[in-house]
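Q: What does the assembly look like in three dimensions?
Context provided by user:
Components: two
Sequences:
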Amino acid sequence: MNIAKPNSYRSGPDERGHFGIFGGRFVAETLMPLILDLEKAYTAAKADPAFQAEMNGYLKNYVGRPSPLYFAERLTEHLGGAKIYLKREELNHTGSHKVNNVLGQIMLARRMGKKRIIAETGAGQHGVATATLCARFGLECVVYMGAVDVERQQPNVIRMEMLGAKVVPVQSGTRTLKDAMNEALRDWVTNVHNTFYCIGTVAGPHPYPTLVRDFQSIIGNETKAQMQEVEGRLPDSLVACIGGGSNAMGLFHPFLDDPSVEIFGVEAAGHGLTQLHAASIAGGRPGVLHGNRTYLLMDADGQIQDAHSISAGLDYPGIGPEHSWLHEVGRVNYLSATDDEALAAFQLLSKLEGIIPALEPAHAIAKVMELAPKRPRDHLMVVNLSGRGDKDVPQVGDILRGKK
Amino acid sequence: MTTRIDTRFAELKKQGRSAFVTYVMAGDPDLTTSLNIVKALPKAGADVIELGIPFTDPMADGPSIQAAGLRALKGGMTLKKTLELVRDFRKDDNVTPLVLMGYYNPIYIYGVDEFLADAKTAGVDGLIIVDLPPEEDDELCIPALKAGLNFIRLATPTTDDKRLPAVLANTSGFVYYVSIAGITGAAAADANAVGEAVARIKRHTKLPICVGFGIRTPEAARAIAEKADGSVVGTALVDALKNSLDAEGRATAKTVDAVAELTAALAQGVKGAKQAAE
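A: Here is the predicted structure of the complete assembly.
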């Protein structure tokens, strides 16, 4: 495992899966042996050049990597400040960054001999990526999705079913992402002998936050090389949206030890931070849920509160534990954007750049609209365009026509 | 240190009888009814009481216990009130062991040291915390043992011989064997497989072994009682409670009796068991 180095933000977690006080393995005993097996399998795979080579092959020819780093010229002109680059994760096969992680986990599942894959999904992007790779490798796939999300992300539900996955609408609790995760954990406890749980974000019990981060770090590593090629230097700032935080962690992690790089994570402020929202760092405190200690939205009794975001992918009352730690040590600056700000950014990017973003990265664009004008023209700002907006077109269309 | 749990299992051993352990959710559907149910359990034949701490996201529980927790929370139940319930129960009963069962977050938010002190004062004997495996013993297990509470660990079908010593290391009171890989109230436990598992765990510990998950009827409870030191019934009692509620989910005149009657029937099943093989 990693050895703690002084002055590094990239050495975590410790051997028990802790980032400072965050992370850990808070799971039922039934799952513990499997989580230890997974850690062993992942450690072995990381050290196996054949695993990396096979993965690189699929990343190039199946996912379509590297994803471009695109200079958003008209957005830059419009905002009149920093030079804005978009990391085009929405161009990946399946339409988001989620596939980077799913490919890695499916290859691990194959190494572990697991034939049945389960996943939770919010917006459906992780579900679609999982259904896609299960189709590709001939694995059974069951996706848990909150009934509310099934309703608002219909295009992705249809895609998952076309790919051969079984989509289970979750009716318990708030019927969104957190409940989908509860239900996936219940399935896993029940079918632990043959089932691999493909978690979609940098959360859950150790080693998930680490392995998802590692699989997503290709985003930041490519960005570093691409920026070097076009501008000959590091970017000055990074911006990414955060639900659980996998696209953000993937972009941020390779830059954490570059002190000149300012880093901004954008949580979903929903109707506003004093009302219903999904900003765990802005409005929560440390607690324990879904296998890890992290910032959570909860009441005085430790009961988990309902999150709200216009974006199903950010509608979660927690955040990955490494983000909680990066917040506490002050390396990453966590901001938030409301539903209305995200909708405005969604429209702006569509009209100025001809790119319809998903509602999730629209939250990041919304903060770019605030940050970029305050920075000089030679400031290089990278935004992770983590997913495309096709799935949101019916929902946003209804909102803009005043139907919802 | 000897807790009420140790005393009770020692007595039962002398009598040559397996324990009947009941689980109900604290505050389901309201604090007063819940207190009356808990008070009725020992009279109906419960040897040990497990009291659920309501939580919004009980990831190892099936639909019945999930719903029970939400009913309790809707009725205003909190961890603080759960401890008050225990304190009230202890006014009339200073012998029946009482174990709190739930998830870590409400305790973590209450504050571990403060919670342990308050739980001990209220008359709690032990804790079963589903999402605290031995890998997280520093969090609550070790402090609980220091505070004089038993920390009862779950062992499962996936806990193999290699892992058992780690699971048993800081366990006290009894071992809770989860008879199926699954959530509460799901599949039925197979008595023969349970017997083998209990024998396997007994090779590693002298602690009593109680078996739970998937036991619903007096017959099933008897079959398990013949193989183990105790059987735990939860979902069936919670379902009996739920079926006694009115259309708005409120307690009726039948609610306490509904739980007590099923408890008595199950206790008869356990008491009819032949002595567990040692």
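Follow-up: The first helix of chain A runs from residue 32 to 46.
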